[in-house]
Write a structure and sequence with these properties.
2 copies of one chain form a homodimer. Chain A is an alpha+beta fold. Helix content of chain A is about 35%, strand content about 25%. At the A-B interface, α3 of A face α4 of B.
DNA sequence: CGGGCACTTGATAGTAATCAAGTCCGGTGG
DNA sequence: CCACCGGACTTGATTACTATCAAGTGCCCG
């Protein structure tokens, strides 16, 4: 299948270049998008597969076309610290564009994924040709910093309940949708995953969730979803 | 005092535009620097003065010409969470360039300071004219993200000793210098400040520092400086 | 020399980690 | 269709750590 500039085709979407769904390229017109597409290599991973391993030397930016990916580190005491959960349109590996050092994180598919890979050489040319891409990246990095700063703020507290609450609010924003019963949240992580995200023990997550349910603030439904009944209460 | 493009003068340095000391402008030539300088407003703050208050609406990027500034937030439980300690050449307030929302942090001079202020309108023009500035900013934001990710990693652990050790290693990198006795570190923060930085109680910082001294890993000298005798031991 | 402030040290209490059983649920095979 | 198996989750008991409260102590600066 060959892509012509007038009849743009993408092997993933079949009708539209996937780069078009990616915020950092949103300012480009169709022809420019095609130049981007020509630089992209694609790959698929199934749930559980490792995409990047801490220490690996990579020279590419990775953009997620579909699925979810978690990035994490192994801490000095052997725990897994989850840093981000990325999904469609998100990118990571921006450090690879700048520095020649091993990855400081692991990346693992937590759902079946399709990703787009852009090698640093090609990407740097893009940045020089389309400065608007740089601005989009700055914007995204600022958002990520904001997220990390919030995370530091809530982690600095030793109150596990606060950490759980903040995690639920974040999940509500990213994965929640309205529902007659309350805000329905599809949890992207298992209990253990959530524990690794906020840096507490598995058991503590269980206990705090049950506690929130007893107080009527949330309602658990199986292990993978919950309803937030009283969002205000979580904010305190 | 009027600055001519051939005879560049800065009211702070007397002989060289201060913008030249700022990494994000390091790729510009003298004439370009002058354009930057023409956009800059300057201000001075003395130790202890507040520069930004959480919630303030600012539309400027702030670059530090001299002195040190801490940025922090008041957490839900009323504690002060220090996020960064900025010094000469660092910038902050990049969120002001993108969003129309109140500052998410406080900024306070922890030493007498001279700062340069660039209003967002002028700065956005700079970004469009000199894309290399964007790249420098991306680089700095990546470094800051890396720092925050490390911070999240160490904060996620509930082990206060680990947090203290990591803080000392960071201070060693930024404020340390070699000395016959070991690495001499000038502490930028008081005990209480350090406690607010790593999210533990004042007393815990004291105890852990004494403990490290007892083990022969550091040597305290007054309250504002210490020697790191065994850097390897801190890394574990 | 004296006052004030930052720091240290000690005692106690509270919270979450850890260890150890259970329980629930989805999937598989008879 | 049902019984069984294993993994993920919950619940309970104990332990360990750090926050907190409460006195000191040392030091800088007038």
């Amino acid at each position: 299948m060959i892509a012509l500039s007038k009849d743009i085709v993408c092997e993933h979407c079949g009708h539209q270049p996937c780069a078009k769904r990616v915020p950092i390229f949103s300012s480009l017109d169709d022809e420019e998008i095609m130049q981007v597409v020509s630089l992209i290599t694609r790959r698929e991973y199934s749930k559980g597969e490792m995409i990047i391993i801490q220490g690996d030397l990579s020279r590419s930016l990775i953009i997620i076309h579909s699925g979810k990916i978690k990035t994490f580190r192994y801490t000095a005491d052997g725990r897994e610290q989850i840093l981000y959960i990325f999904q469609q349109g998100d990118f990571f590996g921006e450090m690879n564009l700048l520095y020649e050092r091993g990855a400081s994180y692991n990346a693992q598919a937590i759902e079946d994924c399709r990703i787009c890979i852009i090698h640093r050489d090609g990407f740097q040319k893009l940045l020089q040709r389309y400065p608007s891409i740089s601005l989009k990246i700055i914007e995204e990095l600022c958002n990520r910093l904001d997220k990390m700063e919030n995370m530091v703020e809530s982690m600095s507290s030793n109150d596990a309940e606060l950490r759980v609450n903040e995690m639920l609010l974040e999940f509500s924003r990213k994965y929640g949708r309205e529902h007659p019963e309350g805000r329905l949240v599809e949890l992207p992580l298992s209990r253990e995953g959530m524990a690794n995200y906020i840096g507490v023990a598995r058991e503590t997550v269980s206990r705090k969730l049950v506690h929130l349910q007893d107080e009527g603030i949330i309602r658990l439904e199986g292990n993978k979803r919950l309803f937030i009944l009283d969002e205000k209460a979580l904010q305190r």
